[in-house]
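Troubleshooting log. The previous run stalled partway through. Resubmitting the same two chains, unchanged.
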Amino acid sequence: MAEFFTPTTEQEFAENFAQLKPVMNRTEALYESSRCLFCFDAPCIKACPSGIDIPQFIRQINSGNDTGAARTIYEANYFGNACGKVCPTEVLCEGACVYNLQEVKPIEIGRLQSFATTKVIKSGEKLFGPGVDNGKKVAVIGAGPAGISAACELRSLGYEVDVFEAKAQPSGLTVYGVAPYKITNEETLAEMAYLQAQFGYNTHFNSLIKSREELAELENKYDAIFLGIGLGKTNELGLPGEDKINCTGAVEFISELRQHHHEVAVGRKVIVLGGGNTAMDAASESSRLGAETVILAYRRAKEEMGAYDFEYDLAKGVGVKGLFNVAPIEITGNGYVTGVKFIRTETKDGRVQEIAGSEFVETCDMVIKATGQAKQAEFLSLIPGLKLDGKGRIIANAHTGQTANPKYFASGDAWNGGAEVVNAAAEAKLTARGIHAYLS
Amino acid sequence: MPDLSINFAGIKSPNPFWLASAPPTNSGYQVMKAFDAGWGGAVWKTLGVPVVNVSSRYGGVNYRDKRLIGFNNIELISDRPLADNLREIEEVKKRFPNHAVIASLMVQTRQEWHDIVRQSQDAGADGFELNFGCPHGMCERGMGSAVGQEPKVLQMIVEWVMEVATKPVIVKLTPNISDITEPAMAARRGGANAISLINTIQSIVGVDLDQFAPYPIVDGKGSNGGYCGPAVKPIALNMVKNCAQHPDINLPISGIGGIENWRDAVEHILLGASSVQVCTAAMHFGFGIIREMTSGLEQYMVEKGFNTIYDMVGKALPNVLHWEDLNMKYKVTANINEDKCIGCQLCYTACEDGAHQAIKLNAGTRVPEIIEENCVGCNLCSLVCPVEQCITMERTDDGTQHLTWKERTEAGDVPTEFNDEKAGGRHHWVPEPSAALGKERHKTLPGKARVINGETEVPTEA
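Second attempt completed without errors. Output:
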């Protein structure tokens, strides 16, 4: 018996993917904000990669100044609403809340943050605007958390900004990659529309930049180019049978899910390969789409998974079963996936070793590979002088985001290798300042 | 089981908890319901010439998410005909003969006082409370606090009442006066049998920021009202103490002001009250709070070995001294229990900005450290600490010495000049003023967005 019935309508989808952090009402926000101790040199601020002045905005909510709270949040992080919902707050601000040390529930900082920002987004209240036009232009490649954050900051500094995005919508993984129970498409896009209305950057969707000629044109036309391109497709595993129908990458699966909701089909028995947070998401989502059995297969032990504990708990909570110390060696099937052939493993001296003769086949009718995203090496090779590190990440100055090609600046996953929305938002703000310093 | 019953200046009650004269005692229905719930007595909503009230009558003071830590009203005395009230008093007394029903009264002329006292006695009231306290509406007509603020007038009216009263008379005092003992003594001179205090404090509980008008708002306008609720308890306790300690008053005291639970009641009793009256808490939570109050009081009395209320009345009074009689050799120092500390550092910033810079922060830990030589033992850190028993004030003197300000003054050992060597703070260390500048800018000022400092690992130029 599956945990969830397969959703067939938008309403059923919304029920199966009910928001983990629903937006608070005013009373709830009053009660929760009242609990904040207003710590000196608050640990929550230090735990926030974007350094939001959390006690300040909570105090503002508590005194009825929700607009001021939203301003405090947005001054530090342009993805303030999204971050309130999608941040792993359990290991960031809320994890640092001193209440944890008293075994008291930490302040629900994320939900308070979404409360204040949702209010201004809904009202459309004008809090920010572009700076005085300085006559300079910056091209932003990628409309994800990094690109949009950079665009906002650059506009506030007086730059004309054109954002080029390969996909049809802004916000990157916030609308194409985050699990649907963390944030809805409507919420994500509402914040994007709010930011664009406030700052007035130009967006060009369905505009994939893919050739040296296109880059050369940008280099001629713009004073600087910001790379917020994120990561690419799911890594290939190089296994026999990987091309079988119903063997898909987690990134691609989740992107489809975010865009097409209940219209996305899932197998009756799904095997998710991987042990990171994306694997947990893909497994949870399969279950919520009505899969009868969802198995999370990881090549190391449970304790060694990269996923946060609360993400694994979330998956377990919707019936996902763990299968540990197994490495996939073949996707079996005849056109369609029928199973995964695994070999058992053990970890010796920190290294995974296969146990000879321990092969077995776990049947399934769908395989989701959550084994990391590839870097966009091919595109990056089109930029003259750009340097990458051994892992394919762009090398840039830690404080300015400037790459080895002085006209190019970078932030977000393409730079940090893959982190949270909040990291990209924080980095991009800093990098925009770096661009400003370079062009001033 | 301890005996909770009282005989308050001749008014008998099964327990010391009375409802104060206010909206909860507006009708026989409410008083019967309260007695049924366990209240020992009720002071009826003030009788007099029936009034006409405005709509929108109460205002509240909230603190964060806590509602009505303070409360005020612009309601007047009973707006019901006297005959209706008296008939219901009679009915309540028939059903509850052993409970205390006290008629609160407020009229103007001697004749009116005589008439209303007689009629209330005939209805079966166990006693009277003369309302000389109402600080709004009635005082403008020469009644309520207008009387309570004029000891001579107060005394005269008490004398009028005593001419006909055959039941005990309590005088309810207004706190809207600089020395509460003056009207209390006037009440005694007039022959009153007891006093009750405090009535409400003249107040504006808040201003509507959009309408620019005080709460409660009546058609865009407002007026000063009478303040009560938990916030007024400290003021009430001090006034109860003043009356209880004054040798010339020597009357039973019914304590009123901020009583919501058994603890509040015990505090009033320890400072000299022998009955307590409650209004706001009953208006906020209903009559059911009486169960917690009686059970808490009983439990306390059992634990302390008190058999009757009178074993504890005024028990704290010998310990309430004038400041000049306190022992200046007593010394406490703050102590932080590191195992309990959660690192909020509220004690640090409170001491740093609000006291004596006697707490410091050390690198590598969020647990602050007390600088003992700077600590003056003010208690502030222990008051702001959100963890129970985390910061304690420990006695550091050896307990053998005793010296008061009075004794020092008598011995000529006090500072008398502006730059006197004997100044108490003379040898306390304080930082240089300029050391404050920029000291904690990165921790306390807005715009704290921090440079990416290792939170995100990014490849950088070598």
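Takeaways: Chain B touches chain A at residues 64-66, 342-346, 348-349, 366, 386-387, 440, 443-444, 446-452, 455-461 (CB under 8 Å). The longest strand of chain B covers residues 66-73.
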